[in-house]
Amino acid sequence: MVTTHKKIKVNNVSRQRPKSASAAFFANPKIFVIIALLFLLLILFPLAKNYSRKALIEKEIEEINQEILAFEKQNYELQEMISYLQSDQSLEEQARLNMGMRKPGESVAVVQGDFSHLAAPEPVRPIPMPNWKKWYKYFFK
Question: How far apart are the C-alpha atoms of 89 and 91, rounded to whole Å?
Answer without folding.
Answer: 5
